[in-house]
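Self-study notes.
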Amino acid sequence: MKRLLSLIALPVLALGLSSCSSQVKAKRPVSYQFKNGETAKLVNGIAYAPRKAPLAVKRAIAAGNRLQNKPYKWGGGHARQEDSGYDCSGTVSYVLREAGLMQGSMPSDGFYGYGKKGDGDWITLYVRSGHVFMTIAGLRLDTGWGADRDGPRWQTRTRPGTGHVMRHPSGL
């Protein structure tokens, strides 16, 4: 049985890896610059959506706000939707699910095939092997990079984007 599963997994893995080469890769750092009415505003750790943002974006930001101060927990957000902590893919899955943009959850590498290629107008996912983070209305939601490794947090610090593939929900 193990051998059969490995034989099945190899073509699936190869298909997933070959599709990455046709992806749109980030070429510049992920930076936050507040633009009144166009980007989310961060006040005391809480994000506020622009008034003209689509409802799904407002729901995504509200979901991200609910995750603030949760600790990083490997596997968090996968076995249970409401968990005591979240890892990177659990965070992104939670936010997209609560915004009505996906069902269930997936590991970080699963996001290589999520939605559409490239940068979104409102929501962009940044995927690389073993990690995923997102921007919502220009504000980054990430579980850690550099000194910021506490769990799901809104971030305004610039982060390198090189090596990440960009994906976005259809229409956003």
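Second protein, same conventions, sequence then structure:
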Amino acid sequence: MDSSVGYGVVLVTTASIEEAEAIANALVEAQLAACVSLLPIHSIYIWQGKLHKEQEWQLLIKTDLALFPTLEAKIRELHSYEVSEIIALPIVAGSQPYLEWIAEQVKIKE
């Protein structure tokens, strides 16, 4: 399990597929994410005192969590929401070849 320390999945929701794809493309091209999967979801939440039921897009961003501060800044730069969901979850175990692939795709600037 120690081989997966440092890798994670970052969750982000967007209002449209166009915004989701723009963020995903920017993260992968900047080598901040190895892969971003996009899923349509239905969200129910309270915002500014009102109940909302919205169709959104969930981004599942696979990355090295050492990149989180830079990744978060890039998402906030591109995101339309006033308060956007940006939540990092650690990968506690994973296929070694897949984790190595993540490592090859993302670049930590030193």
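Instructor comment on the second fold: DSSP finds three helices and four strands in the chain.
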